[in-house]
Amino acid sequence: MSDTLTEQKPKSVKPPKQKKPASLWSDAWYDLRRSKVFIIAAVMIAILVVMSIIPGLFSSVNAFDPTTCDLTKARQGVSAAHIFGTDNQGCDTYSRVIYGARISIMVGVFSTVVTTLIGGLLGLLAGFYGRWTDTILSRVAEIFFAIPSTLGALLILALVGRDNAGIWTVVLALSVLAWPMVLRIMRAAVMSAKSQDYVLAARALGAGPGRLMGRHILPNALAPVIVVATMNMGVFIAAEAALSFLGVGIQSPDISWGLMIADARNRFLQAPEALLFPALFLSLTVLAFVMLGDAVRDALDPKLR
Questions:
Q1: What is the extent of the structural domain holding 276?
Q2: N or C end of the chain: which has fewer CB within 10 A?
Q3: pTM of the entire structure?
Q4: Helix pair angle (131-145, 167-193), 10° resolution
């Protein structure tokens, strides 16, 4: 044959892309995006957060100042001008409900952050080091566990005095007695995680305590703490309302749903709207955080898959 056959080089075949191995967090996010309970709770909480940050966006519906009151319009029912009616002082209930979301959300968020940081850090140390560190921290936590949270916060705020009561005082009173629960949960999760093979392998390779806790143990022990922290937000919001209702929490001229309920309880039959609407918003807020916590728990607990 006179013609020379040209050799054709085989086309290079690209290896298929390997998918990243699934992790607990990616699986949990996948489940949460498909959970109706999570979506409903997240939408409700998003609205409440926007309401607390930009209350004027919602109160512009009737353009009433929540601090401006007119005694001649006290205890009016629902009308076009006052869509939630007015309270005993003639203040617009709708505007006060909108502005009351800020304090409730702030108390819930900051109390949760403080208790999670304190309890999480101490639980990490107790679970990792064990021995005398675990003994001392556990005994201290048991002392705080013996005091009922709401009753203890009531006592602390009563000692501080009504004149000094404010957002940060309420946050401190609630946080002082709530961190032991987070400590116990973090301690148990750390003790379970530190006995796993990947932690033992990292320790054998020379990883120090800081690297073991921060790189290997903490990310795998956070799941139960996140679930408890999410539910605690609703608990703290309800606790703040209870303390304000009893007269030791948030004080006027600040606006709180618990304070509004306390002011309206004596004239409930004459003006039920002044009590029902803040109570409704308070219940929906607590329900939203409880629903969110349930959805997060179901997503992060492999046993429930």
A1: 26-63+78-304
A2: N
A3: 0.83
A4: 140
